[in-house]
Structure prediction request, 503 residues.
Amino acid sequence: MSVFDEGVSKVIEELIESYSSKPDFTEAGTVIQVGDGIARISGLYSAMSGELVEFSNGVYGIALNLDEDSIGAVIMGSDAGIKEGDPVRLTGRMAEVPVGDAMLGRVVNALGEPIDGKGAIAASARRNVESPAPSVIMRQEVNKPLQTGIKAIDALVPIGKGQRELIIGDRQTGKTAIAIDTIINQKDKDVYCVYVAIGQKASTIARILKVLNETGAMEYTTVVLATASDPAPLQYIAPYAGCAIAEHWMYKGKDVLIIYDDLSKHAVAYRAISLLLRRPPGREAYPGDIFYLHSRLLERAACLSEEYGGGSLTALPIIETQEGDISAYIPTNVISITDGQIYLEAELFNDGVRPAINPGFSVSRVGGSAQIPAMKTLAGPLRIEFAQYKELAVFSQFGSDLSADTLERLKHGERIMEVLKQPQYRPMPVEDQVLILYALNNKHLANIEIERIQKFQKDLIRYVDQHADHIKAEIRESGRITSKLVESIEAVIKQVKEQYNYS
Prediction:
């Protein structure tokens, strides 16, 4: 027998040994209708809601409609290679994504597949995109601050770890900028971040990725993309996929921040799917379970108790309004689910007040209990004085003869407005915020011209860094302003005003 024959016989023997006569009972069905990213399938009588089905060309779908004689599935990709009569098989699995530390610094699609050209992801585990929210027993109260680095938020609308704070406003008012600033500010704070882009333009995403890379934020961030050119099913599943990636870390005891940008487009994608599945439309043609769509997503954000690892998942969903109408269907739904909202006003934005946060409509129902003591002490009077200024500013338009007290309040209010202005992508550490807000609250800015306040802020922080860095260190470590620290801060402010000639 030749060497070739021996090799062939050896291969045949191995195949015979590895052969299994055990039958494979995979349930199969048939495509009876396909189009617009939806497939109607006959058979598959044991399909579960949300189960993955596999088409003959390898594309997956999710079973959403379970009718008596057929099922309706959304196709997770292009439907170009699927035609009537094609076989479809049940996988026995729910939709899932890879999770773990290997996801950090990566850009993935709604199925968790890498789209950044950096090769495959060696994920440590996989997790279902849909999973139940933590129960009441598993949670504890929100009591640790999540610093955004934005003065107007950390002082007036504070966010705690485990909170759900809505960012709402018209298009082009700086909603995404606040979210990206918050991600940048988590550097060296041991907080993992997940940014989910739903229905955004590819050019917008490219700009955001550039900022995250330049600031070093991608080291602790995962970006989940379902762009405007992606099919509606991928846009629908993207936030759940991002949440599953974030939840993995939360249950490992980590603090995680997730941004959903934005849920308005998510609702529109789900409406398109529902109408194509022939589900009955309701108000504004949205399906009846549109509230549940977002409530089951946002309820997964939590601050876990110590027995369950003590991790937290903070959610910042974004909603786009039309002409500032926060009473529309989707905005009111999400406002009722979240623990407060940051309302951005187009009028303020156009007037140069950026971030354009309206303090009247903006509220945090939880974060106040998570502020550091120093910030809490300063923010109380600031919120009242700001509200009084807004009222007086309207009143003063109609009267020319104003009292000295009214003029004083208006002057102070203008300085509050100026201090709360902040450039994009420049988050400020909380100790720097405390210094400038202390100067503001104690009327040290009263004799400084409005145009020079931003310069004074920079000079004060630079001077403290160079000559009195113990002040910032003490605020950072204790979170309090002691009477001894007050003396040091007062002395520093006096020296800065003298040195830089602030009259």
The chain is about 40% helix and 20% strand.
